Amino acid sequence: MKIIQGNKQESSTLRYNQIEKELQGYWKDDFWDPLECPLYTKKTNIKNEFIKFNTTLNTRITNEFKYYFFTRLTEMVLKMETVWRKSTALNRLQKFISIFYSDINSILDISYEKFLFHYKSYLFEEGCSHLTVKGYVQLYNRIYSFYHDWYDERNETEKDIWNVRKLGIDYNKSSSTDCTLNFNYVPTPYRELIKKYIKNRLLIQESLSWGSAIQNIAKLPVFFNFVHKKYPKWDSLEHLNRKDIEEFIQHLRTTPMGGNSAHKGKAPSGNYINRSISFLETFIEYIQRLEWNEAPIKPVRLLILPEDKPKLPPKSMNDIKYISDFVWDQIINHIEKLPEEIRLIVLLLEATGFRISDICALKIDCLIHREDGWWITGEQRKVKDKTHRVPISEEIAKIVLKQQELTRRISLLELNPLNYLFPTYSGTRKRQPISRENVVNNINKLAAENKIVDENGDVYRCKPHAFRHRFGVNLINNGMNILHVQKLMAHASPEMTLVYAKIHDRTLRKEWEKASNNGAVKLQQGGKIIATSLKQQADENGLDLDWIRHNLDSIRLDHGFCIKSPKNNCDYLEQTLEPPCIKNNCRSFHVDQTFLDYYKEQIMKIESDIEVYQRSGRIRSIEIIQPKLKKYKEIRDSILSNGGIYGISKPKRELKN
Fold first, then answer.
1. Is 161 within 8 Å of 25 (Cβ atoms)?
2. CATH topology of domain 340-463
3. DSSP states of 238-271 as a string?
4. Between the CA of residue 493 and those of 319, 505, 632, what are the distances in Å?
5. How high does pLDDT run on average in the chain?
6. pTM tops 0.85
7. Peptide bond into 423 cis (omega under 30)
8. Which of the two ends of the chain, N or C, has the fewest CB atoms closer than 10 A to its terminal CB?
9. Position 519 pLDDT exceeds 60
10. What is the pLDDT of residues 198-234, one digit of tens each?
């Protein structure tokens, strides 16, 4: 075989011999009648469909086709109906090879890119539609991928395409896509460098998640293809200079976005340019820090400047999508039309606040009953919490119990070895949990078929994280303490949870303003009702209307009030400093006498910690904690002497914002 050379020839021969050894009896024939197939049952739904293997082709090629279908069928990756429906696509592929590549011995003997371009062109010339071409090409892609892996017995990280399932690392098992890293998009001179970078960070240091690795492989090849085109003789970045970076940034700004997403072909967005530069900056900084030979001589801080990255607008509260009661009520009205397991997943999304990937990957023993009621427990991958649990109602528990019974009845160890509550029993995702794409597609189908619309009248499109946002907003709306919400949602800091409180307060504010704009009433002496306004009543009672409005915006935290206007974004929302509003002297933060006990307790605790640090000689720990103690004492003293810290007035605060 042409693709396997040198000392790999013997290995490839042994692998092919295995194909010949396993293709016996029915599977060795050139004509497959479904009625004679060893896997055929009365439930098999195939009518007048046969699979014919082209005898004019090299025997190795036809055996590769046979063996591909044989393994997919016997391993229950594909159903008989699916395979026999592909007979037309197989006939097209065999005809194409017999016309143009009759001399090849293996599906791998022609480079993938060359064959794919030629095959697509041929199909369009034959009058096939775009949808038909997509289906025919899909079969070729899957056969090619199967044998690319079959004949290549190297370690996974030595290959140009890595399969996450063979790397032994954590990844989102509910995703039906994004299971491979394809380094073929990186020019050859730099391919091993990128593989080494990803391997170090992903597998050795574990400083990169699988999802982030995919994003790196989506962005970094754009830079390397640019450099390779400009300097075709380079095999390192040693002589990279500032002018090269400037030209690359210009290239980013003027070249349509690529990839396989819905954004392909569109003008580059600020976010796309920002992330492309950021990934490159991190890469260069990393290889310079490790002093790799391929690293640029010029320091990264002189190559990439902070102002190179487009400034992104702060995320507005309006950008936080959550499922409103308006949409949820429509979903509930039609939820019985969803498949049973999808229906349960939707209910669990709404009832638990789990991410969709974590719901799909729930284990069969996820249900816990204690004296205080029912709980769901499961892994929260994003924060690496393997035993996170939330309370659920009796009604939800009964539905989960029913699913547990069903899964235990159907599952065998070989079909569900990892004991998922929602396992996949066949297909390419066999032994994996149900895919998130399956859930989303079913919800979108339900919305389209039943005219489920949003507040604007547009057909609802499911964003699975919106269920999690709904859970958080509902907890806040029902008066739960923000730190309790943080714990239930497995957030790393209360500032992350604060976004739900701001959504709640924005809604509260709108309702209040609606009422105030419609006027107000008051009782005169004698009980007569007359029209008035909030401003007039505030003036008559000596109250500051501006202060009333500003307090409607406030959110109570454990350490004080956040009085940031909903119109503006929190400068410290993404920070994890504890607490960032105090650390950064936030002008939208205030405390009053109700927080005096909190600060007294915190001061006692910090002073106790300092005593421990002094005894153990931990001088650095004392230096780190002393500023916090000083700040807390200032707040305590201000409460005692002035009644609290009230920040600055709302007009000045909003002017500064």
1. no
2. hpI Integrase; Chain A (1.10.443)
3. TT--HHHHHHHHHHHHHS---SSSTTTTSPPPHH
4. 21, 20, 20
5. 82
6. no
7. no
8. C
9. no
10. 999 999 998 898 989 999 999 999 999 999 999 999 9
